[in-house]
Automatic annotation (TrEMBL):
Gene3D superfamilies found in the cross-reference section: Winged helix-like DNA-binding domain superfamily/Winged helix DNA-binding domain
Pfam family, one: HxlR
Protein name: ArsR family transcriptional regulator
Cross-referenced PANTHER family: TRANSCRIPTIONAL REGULATOR, MARR FAMILY
Domain HTH hxlR-type span(s) in chain numbering: 21-128
GO MF, any single term: DNA binding
Organism: Pseudomonas prosekii
Keyword Signal tagged: no
Keyword Magnesium belongs to the record: no
Length: 134
């Protein structure tokens, strides 16, 4: 019998195998959940910015991500904090001083993102495919 992490290497045949891969708590569900956590125009740039600098203020993030609106940045930071990828540190000072940093969960995601980048760079589209918009 194969272990749980190897279910993606074959087409699930038995009901038990399908449940482990495709069921409500299966591999496909968990991978989809991670993708939803990082899916947006700005979440990956925020994460990579935080990988480069362990703690950063909102204003600096806004400067480093040209084109992001304050409303969108705030919404994404709240979602990422809710999902446990980052932590909001409120220093309780006046004027308000808040910084964001990666959580342990966010740091654990880095090898996954590096693997995704490695996969992407080794599977670049052919030159004529990119010209066609494929």
């Amino acid at each position: 019998m194969m272990d749980e992490t190897s279910t993606h290497f074959y087409v699930p045949v038995s009901h038990e195998q399908r449940e482990r891969c495709l069921g409500p708590e299966g591999s496909a569900w968990h991978v989809g959940r991670v993708i939803k956590m990082i899916q947006s125009r700005w979440k990956l740039p925020i994460l990579f910015r935080l990988y480069a600098d362990p703690s950063i203020r909102t204003l600096q993030l806004k400067r480093d991500l040209p084109g992001v609106s304050q409303k969108m940045l705030t919404a994404h930071l709240r979602e990422m904090a809710r999902d446990g990828l980052i932590e909001r540190v409120d220093f309780g000072e006046k004027p308000l001083r808040v910084e964001y940093q990666l959580s342990e969960t966010g740091r654990q995601l880095l090898p996954v993102l590096i693997a995704a980048r490695r996969f992407s760079t080794s599977h670049l589209p052919a030159a004529d495919d990119s010209a066609k918009g494929v």
